[in-house]
Amino acid sequence: MVSRRGENVIPEAIKVLGVLRHRGAVYGVSTDSATFGFEDLESLTTLLRDTKSSIALGYIFNPILLGDAPQPIEWGEFRIAFDGRGFRPPLGASAISNIVGRFSSAKDAAESIIRDVDGSFAFVILEDGGRMFAGRDPMGAKPLYLGVSGRLYALASERKALWALGIGDEYIRSLPPGSLVEISESSLIIRPVKTLEKPKIRLIGGVEAVQELHRILLESVRKRTVGLEAVSVPFSGGLDSTVIAALAVEAGVRPLLISVGLEGSEDLEHAEKVAGEIGLPIKAKAYTIEDVEETLPKVIWLIEEDNALKASIYIPLFWAAETSSGMGFRAMLSGQGSDELFAGYHKYLKDYCRSEKDLEQTLYNDVLRLHEASLEPEEKVCSFHSVEVIFPYVDYDLASLALSLPASMKIASADDPLRKRILRHLARHMGLPQEVYLRPKKAIQYGSGVSKALNRIARRKGLKMHELVSQIFRGLVV
Fold first, then answer.
1. pTM to 2 decimal places
2. Cα–Cα nearest to 261, from 451, 55, 62
3. How far is C-alpha 440 from the geometric centre of its chain's CA atoms?
4. How far apart are CA 159 and CA 162, in angstroms?
5. Domains in the chain, ordered, with CATH?
6. CB 288: neighbour CB atoms within 10 A?
7. pLDDT per residue over 5-38, tens digit each?
8. 450-477 pLDDT, tens digit each
């Protein structure tokens, strides 16, 4: 964070780390001249008692791979915090600091990271002289929020940290993917560096399209699982998660499938059946309506939104991440993003009926909004359980391919009950069971039984589901 008045911001930095303590266990703080830590928050607070600085960078360390190191990292005149990974070649914070060290300007280094590093990440660089640079990958797989008040410019991985500084939601925005923000005491500048452009629609045959999709999606899984020995997949037995699980095996990783839902829910039964057919281990866990009621406030606090639909979606994902962490699986492959790339939602039929161009534009718009709609809430839910969520469908090359395919490869007719046709053809090409690629989409909140349970809980309180969620949200943020 940067003071707009030249005031000391160390107390505010400590406050932000305290709010976000659920994201890790080891803490560090840098000013533009020194780095302090790495230890528990109480010891760090004592260490910083007499330190004053109008600019500060804090980081909470949550190791996933053996080579992960505490941050911020000092490199010459720079202090660097890098949250996430580069994929080709595999890059963590230490390797990123080497990249930064090639540049005499933090601005040039930051632009190079955004433009040249293939990965899922958010980062901040402090430069001697009181300037801060921050950015995130072009797909927005790692959250980064910017808040502005009369006193401060502040960045954080979750909105609640900015709320704690007195910054209202109307002054908080998700930093646009692929963008760079430059902050000093007197100015704030945001500009795009590398963003997803809308590709031209290609004339391509069905067989060639499936083969190219297979190649790029397999590479997306492969590069994201390098160095990971234990990987889980939240698994419903549906198209998205089964394709990812099968590609993980093809990439040399044998994942644990995790299926969650209320007792007797459709997803639990179907997931166990499909897991048996594809020969992968599965951990199925049944929950009760009491579990839903207990989990709901936690999920609302994590996703930071008064949104009943999202609450119903992320309750089962909360359970999946909790189960994954409890079994020692600290990395989880998610199927998020498939519906936006391949027209999985029923709503896309309306656009298709107007024209294929309308559908193609809608899909592009939805992919651009994917970070706020889906990726950020899922990352926050998983980070609470010290699980690193990985999004193979949310890949720059894959998105460029998928958006270049004609709408007719995704939706077959105005009343297509399946949609995502090209991904279904891929599943068939891979030899997956018919009940995977011929099964209509069942949204997680319905297949898991969570939506029905939430409606029952709300009715018992004399409320509608959205009223229940709003009531809990207001109680959490006030």
1. 0.96
2. 451
3. 25
4. 5
5. 2-192 (3.60.20.10), 206-471 (3.40.50.620)
6. 11
7. 999 999 999 999 999 999 988 899 999 889 998 7
8. 999 999 999 999 999 999 999 999 998 7
Give me the count of residues in the chain: 478
- In this predicted structure, what is the pLDDT of residue 427? 98
User: Is 335's pLDDT higher than 80?
Assistant: yes
| Separation between Cα atoms, residue 321 and residue 253, nearest integer Å | 19
Six token digits for residue 266: 């459709």
